Amino acid sequence: MVTWWFVGLAFIGAICRALGAALQERDAVRAPGGTVARLGLLLHLARRPRWLAGIAVAGAGMALHLLALGGAPLAVIQPIGVSGVVFAVVFAALFNRRRVSGRELAASATVLVGLVSFVLVLVDEPVAPTLNPSAAVGVVAGLVVVGLTAFGLAPRTPPKVRVLILAGPAGMALGVAAGFVRLVGHDLASGPSALLGWLPVVALGSLLLCGLLLQNAFRTGRFAAAYAAFLLCDAATGVAVGALLLGEPLPSGLLGQVGAAAAAVCAIAGTVALAAVRHDAESTGPPTVARDHETPIPERGNDSGAYTPIPDDARE
């Protein structure tokens, strides 16, 4: 059986990534730019200490996640990241100075039950990943199309739809990057020449696309919904990439397949419930996020971090 040490690393990594995302969200919401900002958004955020701290914490979590990928199948490790939405809701509540509601606790328990069940069904002996070249080309091309489509559609949609259009492809990009990183990590056992091929380039490009899409999703002011959609698509893509691209096995028996499906439905239902609860929760502190059809920008001449939200159609 897979060493549960790697599963534990993935859980700790999920907590760090959730904390990092919660730290990044506030600066992403306040950043200047249009409804959907381009690469300049990342350059602006790179000058914000709080956002950089969030990147550092999330980076530590990702490092733990990659270590876990070195000893367990992608189809096992990627879904564990879904547990991060539970911690993200808690961190968001702390940063906004409010209590976690009973509905949030119940939804969190649902996510954890589904997640643990899913891992118990899928966990198995790790197999050496083998690249399917034709599938790799299709995955990369599909990711490019999805990313371009998201950037094209997002500015024309209201925030409650835009957050899903942006966060979902961000999760897909991370799932694809994780698959290529697993391949690179396996090939490193044969020597450092694995870092000189095209796989690291694709992985880095996928991570850059992921970051840009996710920060724009945070700018809608719907952190819980953005992070939930991001993690769910990351997990689903990880399972698909592991099976189609790396040749990792999935449950073959009917009982295992039904169990995995039921566990996945449970985790998805809990995650959706968490996102809905967060929409209804009002912060008791000063406003830090934008509402429908508003994009916040820093107030001119004000260094305190306050911002003035203005309608999206009034700013370019």
Number of helices: 11
Number of strands: 2
The proportion of residues in beta strands is under 5%
| Major beta sheet summary | 2 strands, antiparallel
Helix/strand-derived class?
Answer: mainly alpha
How much helicity do the residues have? 55-70%
Structural domain tally = 1
Q: Please identify the oligomeric state.
A: single chain
| Overall pLDDT score | 75
The residue ranges in which pLDDT falls below 50 over 5 or more consecutive positions are 278-316
Instruction: Report the radius of gyration as a whole number of Å.
Output: 19 Å
Using the alpha-carbon principal axes, give the shape: globular
Distance between the termini: 55 Å
Write the H/E string, N to C: HHHHHHHHHHHEE
Strand order of the largest sheet: 1-2
Protein described:
Mean pLDDT is 75; it is low at 278-316. The chain has helices spanning 4-30, 39-45, 49-69, 74-80, 84-95, 102-122, 133-153, 159-187, 198-218, 223-244, 254-280, and strands at residues 294-298, 307-311. Strand 1 (294-298) and strand 2 (307-311) form a beta hairpin. A two-stranded antiparallel sheet has the order 1-2. The protein is globular. It contains eleven helices and two strands. Helix content is 68%, strand content 3%. The chain has 316 residues and is mainly alpha-helical. It has one domain (4-299). The relative contact order is 0.16.
Write the SSE topology.
Elements: H1 4-30, H2 39-45, H3 49-69, H4 74-80, H5 84-95, H6 102-122, H7 133-153, H8 159-187, H9 198-218, H10 223-244, H11 254-280, E1 294-298, E2 307-311
Antiparallel strand pairs: 1-2
Helix pairs in contact: 1-3, 1-4, 1-5, 4-6, 4-10, 5-10, 6-11, 7-8, 7-9, 8-9, 8-10, 10-11
